[in-house]
Amino acid sequence: MVKPAAIAESALGKIIQSIEKEGLSIAGMKMQSIDIHYLQNKLDRERREEQKEQILLAKKVPAVLIVVYGERESEAARKLEEEFLWKVHVSKNEEVAKYELARFFKDEEIFEYAKNLHGIIFEKEEKGIKFWSKNKTKSVEEIEKESKTRK
Questions:
Q1: Each residue of 22-37: pLDDT tens digit?
Q2: What is the distance of C-alpha 129 from the center of its chain?
Q3: Would 91 disulfide with which of 24, 46, 66, 96, CB 3.0-4.6 Å?
Q4: Is 115 a domain residue?
Q5: Which residues are CB-neighbours of 129 under 8 A, at least 6 positions away?
Q6: pLDDT value, residue 145
Q7: What is the rounded average pLDDT of the residues 119-142?
Protein backbone atom coordinates (compact mmCIF):
# COMPACT_ATOMS: atom_id res chain seq x y z
CA MET A 1 0.00 0.00 0.00
CA VAL A 2 1.28 3.44 -0.89
CA LYS A 3 0.18 5.52 2.07
CA PRO A 4 -1.69 8.83 1.73
CA ALA A 5 1.36 10.83 2.85
CA ALA A 6 3.31 9.49 -0.14
CA ILE A 7 0.45 10.41 -2.49
CA ALA A 8 0.35 13.92 -1.02
CA GLU A 9 4.12 14.22 -1.63
CA SER A 10 3.85 13.00 -5.25
CA ALA A 11 6.05 9.95 -4.51
CA LEU A 12 3.84 7.37 -6.28
CA GLY A 13 5.88 7.37 -9.51
CA LYS A 14 9.15 6.76 -7.66
CA ILE A 15 7.58 3.92 -5.70
CA ILE A 16 6.21 2.22 -8.83
CA GLN A 17 9.59 2.65 -10.52
CA SER A 18 11.29 0.96 -7.55
CA ILE A 19 8.77 -1.90 -7.64
CA GLU A 20 9.64 -2.57 -11.27
CA LYS A 21 13.37 -2.10 -10.67
CA GLU A 22 13.18 -4.86 -8.03
CA GLY A 23 11.87 -7.18 -10.75
CA LEU A 24 8.32 -7.36 -9.43
CA SER A 25 5.25 -7.27 -11.65
CA ILE A 26 2.17 -5.27 -10.73
CA ALA A 27 -0.84 -7.60 -10.66
CA GLY A 28 -3.41 -5.09 -9.45
CA MET A 29 -3.62 -1.45 -8.50
CA LYS A 30 -6.32 0.94 -7.35
CA MET A 31 -6.78 4.15 -5.42
CA GLN A 32 -9.18 4.28 -2.51
CA SER A 33 -9.84 5.95 0.80
CA ILE A 34 -8.93 3.97 3.87
CA ASP A 35 -11.77 2.89 6.18
CA ILE A 36 -12.39 5.77 8.64
CA HIS A 37 -13.41 3.40 11.48
CA TYR A 38 -10.16 1.48 11.02
CA LEU A 39 -8.25 4.78 11.12
CA GLN A 40 -10.03 5.93 14.27
CA ASN A 41 -9.24 2.64 16.05
CA LYS A 42 -5.61 2.95 14.97
CA LEU A 43 -5.54 6.56 16.19
CA ASP A 44 -6.87 5.46 19.58
CA ARG A 45 -4.13 2.80 19.86
CA GLU A 46 -1.26 4.95 18.63
CA ARG A 47 -0.83 8.13 20.59
CA ARG A 48 2.40 9.38 19.04
CA GLU A 49 2.00 12.75 17.33
CA GLU A 50 3.61 11.73 14.02
CA GLN A 51 1.20 8.79 13.78
CA LYS A 52 -1.77 11.07 14.45
CA GLU A 53 -0.72 13.38 11.62
CA GLN A 54 -0.43 10.45 9.18
CA ILE A 55 -3.82 9.11 10.18
CA LEU A 56 -5.53 12.49 9.90
CA LEU A 57 -3.98 12.95 6.45
CA ALA A 58 -5.32 9.52 5.45
CA LYS A 59 -8.85 10.81 6.05
CA LYS A 60 -8.31 13.46 3.37
CA VAL A 61 -6.00 11.77 0.84
CA PRO A 62 -6.54 8.27 -0.63
CA ALA A 63 -4.02 5.43 -0.63
CA VAL A 64 -2.92 3.46 -3.67
CA LEU A 65 -3.22 -0.28 -3.18
CA ILE A 66 -0.81 -2.35 -5.26
CA VAL A 67 -0.56 -6.13 -5.61
CA VAL A 68 2.83 -7.37 -6.80
CA TYR A 69 4.30 -10.75 -7.67
CA GLY A 70 7.61 -12.12 -8.80
CA GLU A 71 10.69 -13.97 -7.70
CA ARG A 72 11.94 -12.99 -4.25
CA GLU A 73 8.79 -10.90 -3.73
CA SER A 74 9.12 -10.91 0.07
CA GLU A 75 12.75 -9.80 -0.07
CA ALA A 76 12.00 -7.15 -2.70
CA ALA A 77 9.03 -5.85 -0.72
CA ARG A 78 11.21 -5.47 2.39
CA LYS A 79 13.73 -3.45 0.33
CA LEU A 80 10.92 -1.16 -0.79
CA GLU A 81 9.76 -0.74 2.78
CA GLU A 82 13.30 0.17 3.86
CA GLU A 83 13.70 2.61 0.95
CA PHE A 84 10.41 4.42 1.48
CA LEU A 85 10.08 3.96 5.26
CA TRP A 86 6.67 5.21 6.42
CA LYS A 87 5.42 5.95 2.87
CA VAL A 88 4.51 2.33 2.12
CA HIS A 89 2.94 -0.57 3.95
CA VAL A 90 4.11 -4.09 3.11
CA SER A 91 2.33 -7.22 4.34
CA LYS A 92 4.40 -8.75 7.13
CA ASN A 93 3.94 -12.38 6.06
CA GLU A 94 2.01 -14.61 3.67
CA GLU A 95 -0.97 -15.00 6.01
CA VAL A 96 -1.36 -11.22 6.39
CA ALA A 97 -0.88 -10.76 2.63
CA LYS A 98 -3.74 -13.20 1.91
CA TYR A 99 -6.00 -11.38 4.38
CA GLU A 100 -5.18 -7.94 2.95
CA LEU A 101 -5.56 -9.16 -0.62
CA ALA A 102 -9.04 -10.55 0.13
CA ARG A 103 -9.99 -7.38 2.02
CA PHE A 104 -9.07 -4.92 -0.73
CA PHE A 105 -9.25 -6.79 -4.06
CA LYS A 106 -11.74 -8.98 -5.89
CA ASP A 107 -10.36 -11.96 -7.84
CA GLU A 108 -11.13 -10.28 -11.16
CA GLU A 109 -9.00 -7.27 -10.16
CA ILE A 110 -5.81 -9.38 -10.02
CA PHE A 111 -3.88 -10.11 -13.21
CA GLU A 112 -0.82 -12.24 -13.94
CA TYR A 113 1.07 -11.86 -17.18
CA ALA A 114 4.42 -12.56 -18.79
CA LYS A 115 6.80 -9.63 -18.86
CA ASN A 116 7.42 -8.10 -22.25
CA LEU A 117 11.18 -7.83 -22.81
CA HIS A 118 12.46 -5.08 -25.11
CA GLY A 119 9.12 -4.63 -26.86
CA ILE A 120 8.88 -8.24 -28.04
CA ILE A 121 5.87 -10.43 -27.36
CA PHE A 122 6.54 -14.15 -27.58
CA GLU A 123 3.91 -16.46 -28.97
CA LYS A 124 4.44 -20.21 -28.84
CA GLU A 125 3.75 -22.11 -32.02
CA GLU A 126 4.23 -25.72 -33.03
CA LYS A 127 7.46 -24.97 -34.89
CA GLY A 128 9.09 -22.74 -32.30
CA ILE A 129 8.49 -19.20 -31.19
CA LYS A 130 7.07 -16.45 -33.34
CA PHE A 131 8.09 -12.86 -32.51
CA TRP A 132 5.66 -9.98 -32.71
CA SER A 133 7.11 -6.50 -32.35
CA LYS A 134 4.85 -4.05 -30.57
CA ASN A 135 6.30 -1.35 -32.82
CA LYS A 136 4.75 -2.80 -35.98
CA THR A 137 1.87 -0.74 -37.24
CA LYS A 138 -1.11 -2.86 -38.18
CA SER A 139 -4.73 -2.02 -38.64
CA VAL A 140 -7.32 -3.42 -36.27
CA GLU A 141 -8.67 -5.51 -39.14
CA GLU A 142 -5.22 -7.10 -39.75
CA ILE A 143 -4.79 -7.93 -36.07
CA GLU A 144 -8.29 -9.46 -35.83
CA LYS A 145 -7.69 -11.53 -38.97
CA GLU A 146 -4.34 -12.84 -37.64
CA SER A 147 -5.95 -13.64 -34.30
CA LYS A 148 -8.67 -15.72 -35.97
CA THR A 149 -6.22 -17.65 -38.16
CA ARG A 150 -4.00 -18.58 -35.17
CA LYS A 151 -6.88 -20.23 -33.28
A1: 888 899 999 998 765 6
A2: 30
A3: 96
A4: no
A5: 122, 123
A6: 73
A7: 49
SS3 104: helix
Residue 133: domain span? 120-150
Q: Are residues 54 and 97 in the same domain?
A: yes
Instruction: Please state the domain count of the chain.
Output: 2
The average confidence (pLDDT) of the chain is: 76
* Alpha helix stretches (DSSP H) within 9-136: 12-21, 36-45, 49-60, 73-84, 94-104
Which contacts of 123-131 are long-range, i.e. CB under 8 A and separated by 24 or more positions?
123/150
Non-local (6+) Cβ contacts of 57 within 8 A are 4, 5, 8
Whether the Cβ atoms of residue 114 and residue 25 lie closer than 8 Å to each other? no
Residues 74 and 142 in one domain: no
Counting Cβ atoms within 10 Å, is residue 100 exposed (0-12), middle (13-18) or buried (19+)?
Answer: middle
